[in-house]
Specification:
mainly beta; about 55% strand
Length: about 80
């Protein structure tokens, strides 16, 4: 059974694209334009037994920067 689920509800596709991830694999998305990309990562931290996330800017085709925008625990306030 999947632990994580991702979807792309808005795009040029006629159907919603989806993906699944497990505790052991996590799941990530990468959404890009010519200026760079935004990457989101979800993973299960076995040590703390929490679902964690990171949202960051990353380069795409040589453009953009690498910068962590937010990270924390899913469902808990206090984003860093």
């Amino acid at each position: 059974m999947s632990h994580f689920y991702a979807s792309i509800p808005t795009s040029a596709r006629k159907t919603v694209a989806t993906a699944r991830g497990h505790k052991s694999t996590g799941i990530s998305t990468n959404t890009a334009c010519w200026n760079g990309a935004i990457e989101t990562v979800l993973w299960y931290d076995e040590e703390t037994q929490q679902n964690k996330f990171r949202v960051q800017q990353v380069t795409h085709q040589g453009a953009g920067i690498h910068e962590v925008l937010a990270e924390g625990v899913v469902g808990v306030g206090g984003i860093k």
